[in-house]
Automatic annotation (TrEMBL):
<dbReference type="InterPro" id="IPR006097">
    <property type="entry name" value="Glu/Leu/Phe/Val/Trp_DH_dimer"/>
</dbReference>
<dbReference type="InterPro" id="IPR033922">
    <property type="entry name" value="NAD_bind_Glu_DH"/>
</dbReference>
<keyword id="KW-0547">Nucleotide-binding</keyword>
<comment type="similarity">
    <text>Belongs to the Glu/Leu/Phe/Val dehydrogenases family.</text>
</comment>
<dbReference type="InterPro" id="IPR006095">
    <property type="entry name" value="Glu/Leu/Phe/Val/Trp_DH"/>
</dbReference>
<feature type="binding site">
    <location>
        <position position="72"/>
    </location>
    <ligand>
        <name>substrate</name>
    </ligand>
</feature>
<comment type="subunit">
    <text>Homohexamer.</text>
</comment>
<protein>
    <recommendedName>
        <fullName>Glutamate dehydrogenase</fullName>
    </recommendedName>
</protein>
<dbReference type="InterPro" id="IPR006096">
    <property type="entry name" value="Glu/Leu/Phe/Val/Trp_DH_C"/>
</dbReference>
<dbReference type="GO" id="GO:0006538">
    <property type="term" value="P:L-glutamate catabolic process"/>
</dbReference>
<dbReference type="Pfam" id="PF02812">
    <property type="entry name" value="ELFV_dehydrog_N"/>
</dbReference>
<feature type="binding site">
    <location>
        <position position="192"/>
    </location>
    <ligand>
        <name>NAD(+)</name>
    </ligand>
</feature>
<feature type="binding site">
    <location>
        <position position="352"/>
    </location>
    <ligand>
        <name>substrate</name>
    </ligand>
</feature>
<dbReference type="GO" id="GO:0000166">
    <property type="term" value="F:nucleotide binding"/>
</dbReference>
<dbReference type="Pfam" id="PF00208">
    <property type="entry name" value="ELFV_dehydrog"/>
</dbReference>
<dbReference type="GO" id="GO:0004352">
    <property type="term" value="F:glutamate dehydrogenase (NAD+) activity"/>
</dbReference>
<dbReference type="InterPro" id="IPR033524">
    <property type="entry name" value="Glu/Leu/Phe/Val_DH_AS"/>
</dbReference>
Amino acid sequence: MSFTDSRRLLLEAEKILRRAVELLGYSEDVYNALRLPERVIQVKIPVRMDDGRVKVFIGWRSQHNSALGPYKGGIRFHPAVTMEEVIALSMMMTWKNALAELPYGGGKGGVKVDPHVLSKRELEELSRGYMRGIYKYIGPDTDIPAPDVYTSPQIMAWMMDEYYRLTGENKLGVITGKPKLLGGFETRIIATGFGVAVAAREAAKKMWGGVEGRTVAIQGYGNVGYYAAKFLHEMGATVVAVSDSRGGIYSSKGLNPDEVKQVKSKTGSVINYENAEKRITNEELLELDVDILIPAAIEYVITEENAPRIKAKLIVEGANGPVTAAADEYLSQRGVVIVPDILASAGGVIMSHIEWVDNRIGGWISEEEARRKLEEKMVRITLAVWEFWHSKLEPGKHSMRDAAYSLAVKRVVEAMQLRGLL
Ligand code: NAD
């Protein structure tokens, strides 16, 4: 992300906060108390490269708000990470965790690096070096990192081990998203996509009495898109279209998500699936006459430009930020329900919470129980946002996104008031 883009992301995050503060009728003092992160740590990470040179990397950990509990949020390794981006994302984690009713504040970490050009040893050195920079400020009761863009369960395992070496405390709950053998869960792989499917099902129940027989189009067939398709299919919906970066496929009678997945794994794209009626473009997919549209690929795909041509009545944001603010306003006023990303993609962090609890009680929660708890929580928070939207705001004038952020900000403000901070 360029400096301008990350500056824009931070301004966008501040705008979201300002709107929620205004909707809730809070003062400017409340806005100011929530805007800045509580702490930002910058770390310099020297790594001895395989060719003998020492290369210096830079990273950050932003701890935005701790009113509801320890900070929680992922660590990304990306060549374009900036401090502004990490700060903005830590603020968004405060709202996401609050909305998911988790006992967490918001945090985020990042290292400016392209991990794909590092050898395994260099990547391990970097991961351990980042932990050496932040370990004094994190812990199972202070700040709990997790994987994010281009970081993996293996990286979490190295970081957890470095924390043990530095502190002498072998605490599995210091980090989540770990390999199963070190306290992680296999359910994590399905968590976000499954959560998207559950949020879609609950919204469909409110709108039509159920998701059975409803038509679904999904943009993006990666981790989130595939599992959303798989579980919606199992729930009785008809997945008529899916796509990836090379294009999409359509079948009025419905696609079989697992068969499509096999073709994608074997050939690299869903477009090679031969049992579909026709191939379509990603633009056409977004404008299909379906009940439910799930953008699960990249940001800003539904904009002011194509919003007038969108026919779906329910949009569930599997990706981060696929609907722009202007399109959100336009479509919401037209009566389209948009389940916002902060709610729809909360499955990952909810699963992190289950892992953290399990680590602290000594490994007691089964995969089945984890999945049940994840589903229960997704149902509860979707209904809570729906209820808040209809009882405290005006659907048609305010979007479901307004409801989600307002509810989240309200919880954080009330926690700060209870602590005597506001
Ligand atoms: P992924 O890399 O597994 O899959 C991305 C998919 O999108 C691929 O099928 C790719 O071909 C497709 N794609 C890329 N560019 C496209 C384009 N221009 N048009 C159409 N398709 C395109 O990624 P993922 O983990 O499934 O994440 C998808 C989105 O969900 C991202 O925005 C991510 O930030 C967000 N998200 C993911 C998680 C998670 O747990 N994986 C959690 C929260 C949010």
